[in-house]
Design a protein that fits this description.
The structure holds two protein chains of two kinds. Chain A is built from five helices and two strands, in the order ααααββα. By secondary structure, chain A is mainly alpha-helical. The longest helix of chain B has 27 residues, at 217-243. Chain B is globular. Chain B contains 23 helices and no strands. Classes of the chains: A mainly alpha, B mainly alpha.
């Protein structure tokens, strides 16, 4: 098991404009995810202190924090893949000959591309269904339900691009 | 479809994809797609799976995970934790294996301030290991205690994995966190005792080193009073507020994260760079955990809906096993799985089967939860892929081979198994403190 494998090093020294934009986008995703977590902690503490001092409680904190953690997770996931840090079991990769291992790595990236693109499609379809029906969430916040699919679709689309980039990179380097 | 075929498709397919090297979360997502199509009614099932996915991490009970991680990362990246370790080091002198003892005490102290075993091991390894090896400590007595004590962060609150387990198993998170305290301390005492006895019997393992001699008592105690005692205030805030029922685990975790940041500001250790690194590292570790949970709801639903859970459950209950034999069986499954899988995968693969058994047999869920945590702690050290073994090799100086890391961990692995047996034999050690909260 390895949480820190980086098979397609993200920080190549020379990047074209597209690569630079992509790198910046990933970094922003990671930073915003961290920032959201920090903001959640401050808001919850403010709410508890305010409640105990008799200044009243912010009714939206609970629900807002739930959505915020979900957004942070979906924003951060592509960046974590870009860093090569999603947990994986590389038992087979380590024992196979290098050339075979590269093919297996390519297969993994192909599978990742297919899985994420399929998931992105299903999320998009589910979100579209809510959009067409005009369903709304009625809790502390009232808003169209399809909004809850925005970051998951964005996340899975970026994950698809990242797996495809890794696959393309292997092919471009002549590894497969 | 027969339940055993469904089980083979879902669990077998998952294990094959994981073995290929597909990151764990994507292996779960792939199986969810296949399972949803087969068992949840084709296209409708796939749309239901998509809805589950977007809702899976929208849960208040999961919020402590990033907040507990943030606590430890702030203390780590601002250097405050290193100052606390140095302060503890100054107090320990004229004992065999002095720096190994410092690593155990420092690691246990940091476990009370950090929710992440990885951060704990990485910090202790980078702070103490080079110095220990330079002073001629044998790699086994230098690395072993650091790895062993690293896992204690999972038991002693705050613990991100305890929150994950409690949330997914439907066990009271506050009680599970408090239930880990005594087993965590028992583990620390066992490791400490082993290090002292081993270094006394074989002084060559750890060359004599008197530490900070020639200092006045105040000079020795001052860093402890300045850097360690105030930091324990954070632990008191986190655990105390839960124990007396003033705060939910989520709220206490938020207090811990903010208190760690305020402490770093007061000690003038906080810089923009340190804060940025702490936030990015928090995001990375939290997302690693939370994103796997995205797939959890659907996977559990599929196991239940396909009949795999009830089928396996009826077979197991048909064996007329005693509760103790069932507990030992569950632990055996976890220990074997732990040799190959990460902690979140262990939780997600086994919980859908274990919790119905726990319920049917009327076992105390807190006891089982704590045993689960200890089994996961042990899995950090089991070759070939114990996570802390890999982290240790990452922070160890060049020249340390992986087999040396395995060798160093082995005695502590046995020690942890003995503590696990103790908690099985004396459940009060796990459920005594939480029962005071009920």
């Amino acid at each position: 098991m390895n949480p820190g494998v980086d098979n397609a090093a993200p920080a190549a020294p020379s990047r074209g404009p597209v690569g630079a934009f992509y790198h910046a986008l990933m970094q922003v995703c990671g930073f915003v995810a961290g920032l959201i977590i920090a903001i959640i902690s401050v808001v919850i503490v403010y709410n508890v202190v305010s409640r105990n001092l008799g200044l009243g409680s912010l009714g939206w904190v609970l629900e807002g924090s739930e959505y915020a953690v979900a957004v942070a997770t979906f924003l951060g996931a592509p960046w974590v893949l870009y860093q090569g840090s999603h947990v994986r079991i590389d038992l087979l990769l380590n024992v196979l000959p290098r050339a075979v291992g590269r093919w297996l790595e390519a297969l993994v990236n192909l599978l990742g591309t297919l899985i994420c693109s399929a998931f992105a499609y299903f999320l998009w379809s589910a979100g579209s269904e809510h959009f067409e029906r005009g369903t709304r969430v009625f809790k502390a916040f009232v808003f169209p339900e399809w909004w809850t699919f925005i970051t998951p679709v964005f996340c899975l689309a970026l994950l698809t691009i990242e797996f495809a980039r890794r696959l393309w990179r292997s092919a471009a380097l002549g590894e497969i | 479809m027969e339940w055993h075929l469904a089980l083979t498709l879902l669990v077998g397919g998952l294990l094959v994809l994981m073995a290929l090297g597909l990151p764990v979360v994507f292996a779960f997502l792939a199986i969810n797609i296949v399972g949803a199509y087969v068992f949840l009614g084709g296209e409708m099932g796939l749309l239901q799976m998509a809805r589950n996915t977007s809702e899976a991490v929208t849960s208040f009970s999961l919020i402590p995970i990033p907040l507990f991680v943030l606590m430890g990362e702030v203390l780590f990246h601002t250097g405050l934790a290193f100052k606390a370790i140095s302060a503890i080091e100054r107090l320990i002198s004229r004992v065999p294996g002095r720096l190994s003892i410092v690593s155990v005490l420092g690691g246990t102290a940091f476990a009370t301030l950090s929710g992440s075993s990885i951060a704990n091991t990485a910090m202790m390894g980078s702070a103490l290991l080079p110095d220990m090896l330079k002073r001629g400590y044998h790699p086994s007595i230098a690395m072993g205690p650091i790895m062993a004590v690293g896992g204690i962060a999972m038991l002693i609150p705050p613990s991100a994995l305890a929150v994950t387990l409690g949330s997914l198993a439907g066990i009271s998170i506050g009680q599970l966190l408090v239930g880990g305290i005594i087993p965590g301390l028992v583990m620390a005492v066992a490791i400490l005792g082993y290090v002292i006895i081993r270094c006394m019997r074989n002084p060559e393992l750890a060359p004599a080193d008197d530490g900070a001699i020639g200092l006045s008592p105040w000079e020795r105690w001052k860093p402890f009073c300045v850097y360690v005692l105030p930091l324990f205030g954070i632990f008191v805030v986190v655990v105390g507020s839960m124990l007396i029922g003033w705060a939910e685990p989520t709220e206490s975790a938020a207090f811990g994260a903010v208190a760690a940041t305020v402490a770093a500001l007061l000690y003038r250790c906080m810089t923009v760079d340190a804060l940025t690194r702490a936030l990015m590292e928090t995001a990375k570790i939290s997302v690693m955990i939370l994103f796997v949970l995205v797939a959890s709801t659907t996977f559990s639903q599929l196991l239940a809906f396909s009949g795999a859970t009830s089928g396996l459950l009826s077979v197991v209950t048909g064996w007329d096993l005693t509760p103790l034999m069932l507990v030992l069986g569950m632990l055996l499954v976890l220990l074997v799985l732990g040799c190959f899988a990460d902690q979140i995968s262990m939780i997600m693969i086994t919980l859908p089967f274990f919790m119905p058994i726990v319920e049917t047999m009327g076992l105390d869920p807190i006891w089982i939860g704590v045993l689960f945590l200890i089994a996961m702690e042990i899995s950090f050290l089991t070759p070939p892929f114990g996570l802390l073994l890999i982290v240790m090799q990452g922070v160890a100086p060049a020249g340390i081979r992986l087999w040396q890391v395995y060798q160093a961990a082995f005695p502590f692995l046995i020690l942890q198994l003995l503590v696990l047996a103790l908690i099985v034999a004396v459940p009060w050690l796990a459920v005594g403190l939480p029962s005071m909260m009920r």
